[in-house]
Amino acid sequence: MKKQKVEGDSITHKEEVLFNSDTLSKVISYLPSVDVLNLALSCKRLGSATTNDEQSLIEDCTRIAIHEIATEEELATLSYYNGENSLVDYHYLESMRGPLNFDQLVGTVYVNSGDKTCVTNSGYAHFETAFSNNIMRAGKHYVTFETYRPSSQLLSILVGVMRPGKAKHSASGIPLAKEFYQHFSRRLGDGEYNNSNVQCCLYNSSIFNCQCYSSKWDGGLDSGGNETWVGMERVSTGDEIGMLLDLDEGSLSVYKNGRKLGVMQRGLAGPYCWVVSIYTGGRVGIKRGTVPPS
Question: I need a labelling partner for 222 at 20 to 30 A (CA). Which of 29, 48, 200, 248 fits?
Answer without folding.
Answer: 248
